[in-house]
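Please, structure for the following, as tokens.
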Amino acid sequence: MAKRSKLGRFLDKEGYNITKLAQMTGLNKNTISKIYTDSSYVPSGATIKKIMKALRSLDPSKKTEDFFDI
């Protein structure tokens, strides 16, 4: 299995993949893929906001700091 970021590990555990998250957020699959696998990559604020909105639909208690080192 490829290495995963904190976000990637959470989504794997929840049964979500890059395609599903791309659909939920409206973001490009390449962007999602980078976020999924590269733990040192920090996306833009707008991208983080879209991702967190989608994640909170899965688990309202999730915080940005759970997935991104900002």
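Helices lie at 6-14, 18-25, 29-37, 45-58. The first helix runs from residue 6 to 14.
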